[in-house]
Design goal:
Elements lengths: L1 H9 L3 E10 L5 E12 L2 E4 L4 H6 L3 H20 L6 E6 L7 H5 L1 H7 L7 E6 L7 H13 L3 E7 L5 H7 L4 E4 L1 H4 L6 H16 L3 E4 L5 H10 L3 E3 L11
Parallel strand pairs: 2-4, 4-5, 5-6, 6-7, 7-8, 8-9
Antiparallel strand pairs: 1-2, 1-9, 2-3
The protein binds guanosine-5'-monophosphate and manganese (II) ion (MN).
C-alpha cells in the first residue's frame, strides 16, 4: 500500500472530488467538500483509506497539499455558475504537526485566486489533535484571515466536548453514524437534536453527514439542522 501511495503521489494520480453540501431549508448547494481520491488503474480509492500509511511514510502532508491544490483549482470553474460557493477541505491530524504549513494556508488560498471567505477547514475529531493549545492558536490565526473552521465527525472522538469548549470554530459536522440510521433509531434522533441545539446555542452552524435518503432528509429538516451532505444529495465526483 505504501508503494501504491508513493507512486501515486510521484505520478500525480491524486484527485480532488467534490461532494455537495446543501442548505436544508432552501435545498440549494452552499458548498462542496473536497475529498481526496487516489487513482489506481480503473479504480478510485478514498484518500482516507491511505491515512495510516500516509502518516507512517510521512506523506500525509504531501497528500493534503496536493488535494488542497487541486480543490482550489476547481474553484474557478464552479464559481462561474455558483458565485456564493464555499469549499470545505479536510486536514489529516498529522498535518497539524507542521504548524507552518497550516499557517501558510491563507497565503496558498490567496495565491490561487480563491477568496479566504470561501474556504472552510475541517479538523477531524476522530483522532486526537497534537496539541489543543497550539491548534487553538492556529485556528485563531486562520479565522483572523477569514478562513472558517469546522469540527468534522462530531461525536466520534474521545474529546468532542473538549474541542467544542476550547476551539473557536464556525461549523459542527455531525458524525454520519448518528445520521445514517436516524429513521429507525430513536436514540440517534435524540443525540442529533441535542448536538444541534447545543451547537446553535454556541452560535455555530450545523451540518449533517451521511444523509442517504429522503426520509432522513426530512427528519434533519424537522430537527433544524442547517446544512446536509450525503449520497441523497450527491456522491463525491469530479466537477463537470
Ligand atoms: O470524515 P469525513 O466526513 O470527511 O468522510 C467523508 C467520507 O464519507 C468520504 O470519503 C465520502 O465518500 C463518504 N461519504 C459521503 N457521503 C456519504 C454517505 O451518504 N454515506 C456514506 N456511507 N458515506 C458517505
Ligand atoms: Mn470531512
Amino acid at each position: 500500500q505504501g508503494d501504491i501511495l508513493r507512486r501515486a503521489v510521484r505520478e500525480g494520480r491524486i484527485e480532488a472530488f467534490l461532494q455537495p453540501i446543501v442548505n436544508v431549508q432552501t435545498g440549494g448547494v452552499m458548498a462542496y467538500e473536497v475529498l481526496g481520491r487516489i487513482r489506481d488503474g480503473d479504480s478510485v480509492v478514498p484518500a482516507e483509506e491511505f491515512a495510516e500509511v500516509a502518516e507512517d511514510l510521512g506523506l500525509a502532508q504531501e497528500l493534503d497539499r496536493e488535494v488542497f491544490r487541486r480543490g482550489l483549482a476547481h474553484y474557478a470553474l464552479i464559481v462561474k455558475s455558483q458565485p456564493e460557493i464555499k469549499l470545505f477541505f479536510n486536514l489529516f491530524p498529522s498535518s497539524f504537526k507542521d504548524i507552518e504549513w497550516v499557517r501558510g494556508i491563507p497565503e496558498l488560498v490567496r495565491s490561487s485566486g480563491v477568496p479566504c471567505e470561501c474556504v472552510v477547514l475541517e479538523i477531524t475529531e476522530r483522532e486526537a489533535l497534537p496539541n489543543l493549545t497550539q491548534v487553538g492558536l492556529v485556528i485563531e490565526e486562520l479565522r483572523a484571515n477569514n478562513i472558517s473552521v469546522a469540527l468534522d465527525d462530531f461525536g466520534s472522538g474521545f474529546s468532542s466536548f473538549m474541542y467544542l469548549k476550547y476551539l473557536a470554530i464556525d461549523y459542527v459536522k455531525i458524525e454520519g453514524s448518528f445520521i445514517r440510521q436516524i429513521v429507525a433509531d430513536e436514540r440517534d434522533r435524540i443525540m442529533v437534536e441535542h448536538i444541534n441545539s447545543m451547537a446553535h446555542q454556541f452560535g455555530l452552524k450545523t451540518v449533517a453527514e451521511f444523509v442517504e435518503d429522503e426520509v432522513t432528509a426530512k427528519i434533519i429538516a424537522e430537527i433544524g439542522v442547517d446544512y446536509a451532505q450525503g449520497y441523497y444529495y450527491g456522491h463525491p465526483a469530479l466537477p463537470k
